[in-house]
Amino acid sequence: MERIEHRACFGGWQDVYRHHSDALECAMHVAVYLPPQAEQRRCPVLYWLSGLTCTEQNFITKAGAQRYAADHGVIVVAPDTSPRGDAVPDADGYDLGKGAGFYLDATMAPWSSHYRMQHYIADELPAWVDAHFASSGARAISGHSMGGHGALVTALRNPGRYQSVSAFAPIVAPSQVPWGQKAFAAYLGEDREAWKAWDACELIANAPERLPLLIDQGGDDEFLDTQLQPHRLLEACDAVDHPLDLRLRPGYDHSYYFISSFIGEHFIFHMRQLSRTR
Length: 278
Fold this sequence. Notes:
By secondary structure, the protein is of the alpha/beta class. Helix content is 35%, strand content 23%.
């Protein structure tokens, strides 16, 4: 574990660490914001999963989340979006390979040797955070686009692990849209039954807990109709009476201008749940 960035921010510290991941068999960068309260007590942790082409840097430099994390006393952990390094397989294009891990555990060669992002996000990373920082053990998870898909799927696959989950413009039904279909075919193979284990709309049907979902979606998002299709999640939740707060924001697109406009509301949402476990 090596700290490679250390910057004062809203009374706390925005750090970036490099550490070895056994799950991914490579070194990973992870951004960790420690609010000022972390010097006095253990704090809940919000995990943020970023979207296609992103690294740990996008959220910490563009979302404006640190001010809200400092206000509420929340540690924010933002990992990279895929394994990295010369030995890690890659592909042409932005939507497969490095920067496009899709937060699943790949089963097909050559991806299966490194692309085990779900194991990393759900198991290895929280253990690393709890071992090195002032974590209270209470966890929330959120993300954007591919990372929104990752947040929803990770929470649904791990009941009891997270107190709350939210997402900005998530890929809610990757089995039904081009981004997800390309990634799933490569990482998981052509058996579409195997894809269901990584599709939020499929997981909702048999979810063992009714963890409330908060979704923000820009009404002018250029990917709304082709890749995101939030109506599919609404229909899936309605079918089983799963709690969902889907907020369509007119005029907003897919960018971090959208995320920074409403990230404060997501902190309030998460704190309502996290405060119950403190």
